[in-house]
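Record 1 of the preview.
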Amino acid sequence: MTRLNAAPLPERDWINTFSQVGLTVTQRQIGAMRLLEPVQVLRDEGVIQTVQIVWNILTQPLIRDRILMMR
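->
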């Protein structure tokens, strides 16, 4: 099971953090995280890595159980 004691920063804190290192925010977008959605995995990982991930999920029960719990 994935357990993290972490929380995302509020938007203003992200902007302040970027400003502190000399970056300027010119555009921002806020929305739901889609980390385990198949289309997003394909976008993030590419075809070959997505196939490897799917293979691991199908063939390794511990990984499959962990993914299903996270979803």
